[in-house]
């Protein structure tokens, strides 16, 4: 074989792909069911073979070369997996990529029921970084679907050969830990009071800007108590007492019911039902009507409807 076309070991490629999908060495190790030290070793060996750095040691994120390489090898690995499944005549397969918070706090607790109801469908859930676009993963196959949060401020895009359906448009509201609420001196008098409070941001302040604008609160800038990249991480920081995070019912789990978090709401303000975006399921045209995705889509919409019907009380205490 021409030396130029020698490929790295499959174990190293799988470890790198898992790291790129999950955003962390320990999460990749959990997905692959191997020790995290082995994943680190595979990543180092792959970088050595390629002669380039694939991940930033300081931030833990993929480098530009890492993103490029992953987008190129992901469809090939997916194709290899599908070819192997086909030759083994396995059950219908569906890979669902999904933003971390929605995957961990809402979808994952319900998947056991889906698998019991549909044991013939082999479903793989792949939590991905919220900013990893559907086309950025490079695995738009006939066995792939994606669930993402489509923020209202995002410019609409037209994608050829892509089908989608909005599955939920939840209200967004601020939450804080009981200790944090005590430090504030109780519920705010007005929404504008939050501009003087410790606000936890995701990648940037765009979600808070949308939220303040929706509540007609004038502002020049949004103060930050820390940027934490993803919504479910800001909520973890809020539970730890680090500040106020924006949330919706799909990200909270049982945090309100157990008292880990408290919903903020001025006593004289109107009911806060402010959606800022929608959760959307999308897939390629060729995947949309396949049995596995059709069954999963119907089940998902049913579960969201049940969520809306049995939504827990989230109003703050008087």
Automatic annotation (TrEMBL):
**Which protein is depicted?**
LysR family transcriptional regulator
Is Isomerase given among the entry's keywords?
no
* Molecular function terms from GO: DNA binding; DNA-binding transcription factor activity
User: Is Transmembrane a UniProt keyword of this protein?
Assistant: no
Q: Which organism is it from?
A: Acetobacter orientalis
Pfam families (alphabetical)? HTH_1 (PF00126), LysR_substrate (PF03466)
Q: Which Gene3D superfamilies match?
A: Periplasmic binding protein-like II (3.40.190.10), Winged helix-like DNA-binding domain superfamily/Winged helix DNA-binding domain (1.10.10.10)
Q: Name all HTH lysR-type domain ranges.
A: 8-65
Q: Which SUPFAM superfamilies match?
A: Periplasmic binding protein-like II, Winged helix' DNA-binding domain
Q: Which UniProt keywords apply?
A: DNA-binding, Transcription, Transcription regulation
InterPro entries xrefs: LysR-type_TF_proteobact-type, LysR_HTH_N, LysR_subst-bd, WH-like_DNA-bd_sf, WH_DNA-bd_sf
What family is this protein classified in? Belongs to the LysR transcriptional regulatory family.
């Amino acid at each position: 074989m021409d030396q130029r076309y020698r490929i790295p070991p499959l174990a190293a490629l799988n470890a790198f792909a898992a790291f790129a999908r999950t955003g962390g060495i320990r999460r990749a190790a959990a997905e692959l069911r191997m020790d995290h030290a082995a994943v680190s070793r595979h990543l180092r060996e792959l970088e050595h073979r390629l002669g380039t750095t694939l991940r930033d040691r300081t931030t833990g994120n993929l480098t530009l070369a890492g993103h490029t390489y992953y987008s190129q090898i992901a469809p090939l690995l997916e194709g290899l997996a599908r070819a192997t499944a086909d030759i083994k005549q396995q059950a219908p397969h569906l890979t669902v990529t999904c933003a971390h918070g929605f995957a961990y706090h809402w979808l994952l607790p319900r998947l056991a029921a889906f698998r019991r109801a549909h044991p013939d469908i082999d479903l793989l859930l792949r939590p991905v970084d919220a900013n990893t676009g559907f086309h950025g993963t490079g695995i738009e196959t006939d066995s792939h679907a994606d669930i993402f949060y489509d923020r209202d401020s995002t410019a609409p895009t037209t994608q050829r050969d892509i089908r989608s359906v909005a599955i939920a448009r939840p209200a967004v509201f601020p939450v804080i830990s009981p200790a944090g609420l005590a430090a504030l001196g109780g519920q705010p008098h007005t929404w504008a009071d939050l501009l003087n409070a410790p606000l936890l941001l995701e990648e940037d302040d765009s979600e808070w800007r949308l939220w303040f604008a929706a509540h007609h609160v004038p502002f020049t800038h949004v103060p930050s108590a820390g940027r934490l990249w993803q919504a479910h991480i800001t909520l973890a920081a809020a539970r730890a007492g680090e500040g106020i995070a924006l949330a919706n019912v799909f990200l909270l789990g049982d945090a309100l019911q157990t008292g880990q978090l408290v919903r903020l709401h001025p006593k004289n303000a109107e009911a806060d039902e402010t959606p800022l975006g929608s959760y959307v399921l999308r897939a390629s045209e060729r995947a949309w009507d396949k049995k596995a995705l059709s069954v999963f889509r119907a089940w998902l919409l049913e579960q969201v409807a049940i969520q809306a019907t049995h939504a827990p009380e989230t109003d703050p205490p008087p």
